[in-house]
Specification:
By secondary structure, the chain is of the alpha/beta class. Helix content is 30%, strand content 20%. Strands 1-2-4-3-5-6-7 form a seven-stranded mixed sheet, with helices on both faces.
């Protein structure tokens, strides 16, 4: 299916439905490499479905089918989303904010399909908008699992260098908050597996 968070933006998605009536929260699954990354037979998504959960895997903008392949910004360590990040900035927005809206639109779609809260799983750099979405609407989400997520914006400052973190930039945000502040809103419902530093290395 295709979800449309705003005019001109289309998010390809796959819905996985268990053979029996879902017994747990529906799952919104986002991956930095797109909806197909963990959808192979025997993979993480199939395990969730066999456990009785309906799963929606989505290509957030800039991932999967929507990922740009020709963008470059300075050196490769800046990532491949430079043009999109700066277009968002020139529009007075942030790419993180746009992806956060994508997550919320997809979660609202799932709530219309089945009453109850949405479990959120995010893998890679899309964990940053996923964390923002869950902190903005904590009552919408049940369990929130972030895998291989950047530990904090402060870590970028501490290390003085980074790899593929332009996509996680929010202008001026660090003067107000950091990821641990958002995590505090979610409390025990949040789990973080293999947090990464600004160079993409496990802590």
């Amino acid at each position: 299916m295709v979800l449309k968070p705003e005019d001109g933006i289309y998010l390809p998605a796959l819905m996985f439905v268990p053979s029996r009536k879902p017994t747990k929260d529906t799952v919104l699954y986002v991956h930095e490499k797109g909806k197909d990354a963990d959808a192979a037979p025997g993979g993480p998504i199939e395990k969730l479905v066999k456990a009785g959960q309906m799963v929606l895997a989505v290509d957030l903008r800039g991932t999967g089918e929507t990922q740009q392949t020709s963008q470059r910004y300075f050196k490769p360590y800046a990532g491949t989303d430079g043009q999109d990040v700066y277009t968002a900035y020139l529009l007075g927005r942030s790419y993180v904010g746009m992806r956060t809206e994508d997550v919320l639109v997809c979660a609202n779609f799932l709530r219309r399909q089945q009453a109850g809260r949405v479990a959120l799983i995010a893998v890679g750099h899309v964990s940053v908008p996923a964390l923002h979405a869950a902190a903005l609407e904590p009552d919408m989400f049940g369990e929130v699992a972030l895998m291989r997520s950047l530990v904090s914006w402060s870590n970028l400052i501490e290390l003085g260098r980074s790899y593929n973190q332009l996509v996680n930039t929010v202008h001026g945000a660090l003067t107000t908050y950091d990821f641990p502040n958002l995590a505090g809103i979610l409390g025990d419902k949040l789990t973080v597996e293999v947090p990464l530093n600004a160079l993409g290395k496990p802590l």
